Known about the structure:
The protein is mainly alpha-helical. The protein has helices at residues 11-17, 19-36, 45-52, 58-93, 100-103, 105-120, 124-145, 153-177, 180-190, 199-218, 220-227, 230-235, 240-262, 268-280, 287-307, 316-336. It has one domain (38-192, 199-336): Orthogonal Bundle (ABC transporter involved in vitamin B12 uptake, BtuC).
Amino acid sequence: MRIDRIPPLNISHFVSHHPKHMICIFTLAMVFATLFFGKHITESTHDIWLLLTGQADTYQSIVVWQWRASRLFTALILGAALGISGAVFQSLVRNPLGSPDITGFNVGAFTGVLLSIALFGNLYWLSVFGAILGGLFSALLVYIFAYKGGHSGFRLIIVGIAISATLSAFNQWLILSVSLETAMTAALWSAGTLNGMTWSRILPAAMLITAFIFCAFLLNTRMKLLEMGDDTAAALGISVNKTRLMLMFVGVALTAVATAITGPIAFIALAAPQIARRLENSAGVSLGSSALVGSLLLLSADFIAQHIWEDSTLPVGLITVSLGGIYLVYLIIREGK
């Protein structure tokens, strides 16, 4: 009997034909590494098995399932939120630079949180509410000033950069004007960090983010029609301005809630939709793939932040902004060509 050899696995072919599967595989690998790699865990197969079966000692169980798992869940849900927010705005402006990082919506959310802290103290839900209002206010400013017989994607980006610079200056003035304790709280928060995340803190916000993600997927068909052009979308029965405003509200809300929880985290919303689009080799951006890539990017960045220095944990925002700067230069050069 003749037995044919099993053909070798073609990794590039698998990635190009199953991008979501590969993203899921890498994400699961990062989940495993985040939970079981590092100090306080022996990393032996036996101890990992005890943790998975609930037979480990109390201290290791608390470290893994209370501290690390809550931080892991935060990275996954916020990464998905930022990825979808970036996909929404890049679809609206039809430009890979059209993300909340560039157009200033996360800076507006930061302004809202700073005002909330300065006026009412560091109260969690007031900070979330302030972030949403600040993000919506900055989006409204960009929408108004960029309007000139319609909305050009390039004009939205330029106006967004100007609004972002103005709000950044206002934020610095605000930090210098408040008390030292409030300024230190704002400065630590502004770095963007997942330190101190607990289940009681993230679960209510996760429900809010899930609701906005659900709204984004409900508007996905309309968003795809808008990508074909305003005239085409209107001819197909879509209310262009109403749909654009609803999408902007959902995108800003996702960024604002994420910013209120961890502080501003750059790069994820900018890069996730474009990486997903290249993996899928598609012309448009996909909300589902952008969410998966966003989760993987933020989880990976946080893993680096936790382990790049042996004795300290860096804010994840420092890692993402470093990577984001390099990626932004690449995008600008690519768009220039």
